[in-house]
Every structure is written in C-alpha cells, then in structure tokens.
Amino acid sequence: MTEKRNIFLIGPMGAGKSTIGRQLSKQLRMDFYDSDYEIEQRTGADISWVFDIEGEQGFREREKKIINELTQYNGIVLATGGGSIKSKSVRMQLVSRGIVVFLKTTIDEQLLRTKNDKKRPLLTTDILSRREILQKLAMERDNLYNEIADIVVNTKDRSAKFVANRIINLLEKHS
Question: What is the pLDDT of residues 120-132, one digit of tens each?
Fold first, then answer.
C-alpha cells in the first residue's frame, strides 16, 4: 500500500477499534486518532460526563464535528465511536474520505471486553441488562455498519496484531 489513504474503523463498543487502530497505525506508520478521546481532550471531561450533562444528542453533535474535522486529514487511522454511524453526514464523510473497516464481533465478546468498563454511558441503565442493550444497539446499527464498510473483519478471539495484519492484507487487495 504505497498511497496512505485514511482508514476509518467502525463497529460496536468492545469490537477493539481503539486497540486495533493503534496497532494498525503503528504498523502502517500513520497517525492514530480516536474520536472519543478527542472529545474528552477538548471538553476536559470523560464521555460519561458529556452524556450526563448534554445527553446523547449533545454528545452526537460533538462527535459529528470531531469526525468531520478528523476525516479531512490525510493518511490517518481513525477509531470512531460505535454510534457515530447513526448520523447520515458522518456516514457520508467516512465513505467519501477513506476506507471504512467494520470490526465485527459477537455480543458475548462485547460483554467480556466491556464488563469492567465504567465509561460506557449506553451500558449504564437499570432498565435493561447489558446483553439486552448490546443486542438492541446491534439491531439498530449493524445494517449501517455493513452498508458503508469497504472491508469487514471479525475480531472475536483474535489479537489486535492479528486483526491489524488481516486488515493490511485486505487493504492491499482492496487497492
């Protein structure tokens, strides 16, 4: 892959977007960005706080602005928030400004990877179990992930390095 095109990682929480994104950027010698991290840096608060104060809609507006800015860079790897694809404008930006990689995983794997994570505001509710929430999110979002993905990679039971290598191989075939 001689030309360094943007690589945008999408998928549900716990799919490994941030971890795999860092590995991928290291191997490809590209800059790495995480939209959630960028929001935290700019607000000076964690995602949960932004959700508490501004609600999901306020958070999504911030996310949309950050992703619009970051996708205009060249030669980056970007890990997006799991729900960012709910916005049509975000989907259009991702599709038109780089290669979109859907990191797919199972609900069981998501539960395992997020079980001790207190920074996932969509998983903190007394009404539904974590499994029910993840299933509901998958039903709402999986079609959108598939709709815009250039490449789909399963991350279940695979190391970040393995998945990064798999993505690199698929990117070479894609170009």
Answer: 555 565 556 878 8
